[in-house]
Amino acid sequence: MRNRLAVALFLSLALLWAPMAQAAPRGTVTIAINGEPETMDPHVYSSFIGAMVWPWASDLLIIQDAKQGKVVPWLAEKYERLDSKRMKFTLRNAKFTDGTPVTSEAVKYSMGRIVDPENKSYQRAYWKDFDEIEIINEREFIFKMKVPDNGLIRRLGNWVEVISLSNKGKKKEEFSRSLTSGGAYVLKRWTKGQRYEFEANPTWWGNDRYPNRPKTVIMRPIAEATTRVKALQAGEIDIAHKVLPHFIPQIKQDPKLDVVSKSSVRTVYIGIFTTQGGPFADVRVRQAVNYAINAEAIYKTFLAGYADPAHQMFHPWTQFGYNESKKWYGYDPAKAKQLLKEAGHEKGFKVDFISPEGNSPFDRQACEAATGMLQKVGLDVRCIPQPFSMFRRSFNTYVEGKNKTPSIYFQSFGNSTGDSSFLLRGTSTCQGAWSGVCFKEFDEAVDKAAAMEDPKEQQIAFEKVSDMMKDLAMFKVLYRLHDVFGVNKRIEFTPRHDEQLHPWDIVVK
Hints:
The chain contains 15 helices and 19 strands. The chain is of the alpha+beta class.
């Protein structure tokens, strides 16, 4: 009898204690993305997929809040602006996966890798005005800029992942396979082009804040949109990234699946190479390209309501410079022909039109549609779709003048930070990672606007820079995309406007 009472008492206490047990990461979530990072080294390349995936394993100092887009503390538990050129940060009491503490020296080392000319980082252009990191103590430091920089805190929301000092001395190729950092997840194993397997980091500082996150996150790079959808329908994946509009009805027909979307920061445009001279050095020819292309027809034909009109490179969440009243060049093929005639190219000329394939929805089809429009005004254009890695190499050959053929390119840029100078220094200045143009007067205007202290004056200055972009006809601005995901209902997932995908926000039901 006593034994029975003891067992009953034990079971009763167990039931009382059960709700008090701490939740822990559980389950596996598989995410299919339309590409993969060039490397898992977060400090060398600049791509939206890299910027999405690198913070899974390597923490940023701050991030953007998913609901309001406000900057909030992350690896840095607090920060304060000392003056227009200096910002003080205090780090959390956190550790890297090798057991060493996250320190100010580690932040300085991580930033140093980006700005070191020997590393040839594509991100270096974003930090033109960086001065130094002054270490106060192990967990406090001051981020110093050479000029006033209102966009600093925004930029840090997307760049400068902090990695361990134990990475010092590793060769460049070693960083991708044996990087030591301290993010929410640890990359346990991966086969490039096929599968990346991340496990929840048991020593991560944020474990108590995100107790219900997935224990295992598998990222599969699947370039083909059709294949991603089929994998979702077959139950092989839980999230399909960049679902094309014509797949949405069939996904919604499945009671186990859903489609979620969000108007995003990614602006799609056609860039024009001017660095190698030739016909496109004439602004009238660049204007002709703009007038020849019907942007509205392209996005309405292919994107079925999952895109918004865009009349400038700045998106509505940009810190400074966006003005909804701005208008870009419209569609006027007669005007395009007139400008070509005035520029001495009435009979046209050959044009290479390079485009990544599968990087953004219907990029190849949009390239082909724009090609047809350009051909109608007399230009001998050929659309050249390529895998993204090949597109990157081709882009460089035109910028560097190794290929002298007059050329244009299909591209998109997200600017998920919302920092105005980040967008411009990435797409439009002489040293930009994705810039095919070089106008010194434009670079000077960008530098001047970026260094202004007064927010009202800075808004006006960046609006003038936006007007310069149009006057110089650097791009044909096309549209702004929606981020569309196919999702298995066994998980809770909400898309973000800034193109980030944070696994710790996902909950397995």
